[in-house]
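Researcher: Go.
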Amino acid sequence: MEPIFRKLPSGIPTLSDSSAARAVKEERREKNRAKCKTVVKVKAEALQAVQRKGGDVTNVTHLLGQYTIQFGQFRGMTFKWLLENAPGWVAFIVADLETSGESKSSDDRWLNKMALKKYVNIFDEGKHLVKRKKEEKERAKSSISKPVLKMPETEEQMKDDDSDLVACLEDMEAKSREAQRLKPTPNLSSASRKEVSVPVVSSKSTCSGTSLNVAVTSSLSRVVSSSSGATSSLSRVVSSSSGATSSLSRVVSSSSGSSSSMSMVSSSSSTVPNSSSLSAAKERNLLTTPSHQQQPSTSAGTELDHVDLLVGWKKTLPEIDHHWISETFFHAGKRGAEFDFSRVTKLWYDPPQPSLSRGVLNKPDRYFGHRLFLWMPRHLFHVQFHCPHSDCSGILTNSGVHQKTRRVLDVDSYYNMAAENLVCSKCGKKVISWSEGVLDQLDNATRSTFPCILTLKNTCDLKVVRLMRQRGLGNSSSAVRKQVREQHGESYLIKLQMYLSNCREFKASVDRGFFVPTQFSEPPIPAEIPGYSWFMKVYQLDVLQRVDYIKAHLTSQFGNILKMDSTKKITNKLAGKGRKTAMWATNIGNEHGQVLMSVLTVGEGLSLKPMIDGLVARYRNGEVSPPKALYVDRDCCGTSSVRKYFGAWPFLHIRYQYYTLKN
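Model: Structure:
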């Protein structure tokens, strides 16, 4: 329930905004000029929030952390969220409140500010941020206000001031020459190209007994450009104009205690840096990398401490996919992360690819990230769905994104699948877009874009299911599972090899001194493959989805010459409860050896009329001409002939089987 302060590598709390805060700023929330909520209402909402999140309502820190800000561009966000995502804005408000001396009031806006101030001062990090903000404000005031300089009144005073400065610079030059004899001087042309983050004058280069006051500093340009004898003795004083101001002068000297040979003195600052500015410069120097080393460039970004995702997505998505999915589809809203449907324009989304540059240290998510399949048929295909419940016929409307995602097993890897929620305008019941009641309302072309079969916990891609459709010797569910497992292992090893190769190349650059040492991230653990029984369950579900097609395929067989025969070989193989329930199996086949229909009877030749009626109906419905001949092994003629069942085919020739006559 307490805020987590984002810190720089040096351990100092940062004042910069997070990605969530920047997203809120882009919404221009400052245009909301609604009336502030009362203190009583804000406190009541905070109490409810603490209870909902399992906090302690008697704890002042927990309670104030759930207070919402009632002004500014972050209106509606909690104090805890502000300290985590917009610490600079909070520190500015509190520092302004403490320095401006705003008069005490009883309105809700002032009370909200005081509650924010009380919450910030609870934490040491908050006090530190406010202190830094005050120092920045003081430095800004000192740089804007121009101090009145006491100029020398006479020429003699001017010469005395110049002589003090000349003596100090001569002493600095003497120490520089002494340091050059002990150690070679670096190349000034290359040193001048190096970026100096903070102008600092070394304390070892100051002249003892000489005070560099404001008058001495302001007369530096006059000393450099004067034609007195001091100029001839100062061969290392360079007067140059910067890109911003023409009065900037750089004094290049070598300090006797360091290898760096550059220090800068700017005449635009008319006062010697005070203790606060030096401390700020020291703080910035702690974060500055040496000029011969660089920070490693990472293609995965640095804002990994805060991810805008739904709670359900965080639990069901692999952790390695949190960052890129959050940046692609989510933005910060009043109540947390919100899914942006305007960014959804296609079905498949791929994770960011790794950089091929050797100077870039790729994060593991660039190699091991998973694809995302967004199944939102109403949003993408603009299809009107009806409520799938039998007792309702209402229209389904959009109800946001589903709170959980699915991991789908593919041939060589996993991928993630998300869906949209649909709600009935009549009964109010919610339906997920991947449910069978919604999928059955799609046409065949649109339905074919849905690539998987769902079970209770896992999901399987159709490419894996198709491997099991050709059932036969050596194509069992165990064999398919072994093939899929091998493909997953090969794919993971290839990605691991690429990631470790990138780490090795970057480590070589670190050893050469091009980059500062950094810690490599561990690769993720590969996901397990379900058991062979689950593969068989998926295959059964696939057969049930295709049962109409299978029936149509079986009942679409015809022939011109038919054969009807009865046998006991099939019924003798019946076991269990079905044993001895039938005595004969009567089959009808065509000239190609295909079985058109089969029926089990308790006696030979009994109950054949329903089967023959079905066969006649098949030919009639298929608009196929009747067969020309039918061969039987008995009852081909006489009163017991089967001709009486074929009244719809008067031209059918019923003949006795050839092999019977031969025997």
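Model: The chain has a mean pLDDT of 75.
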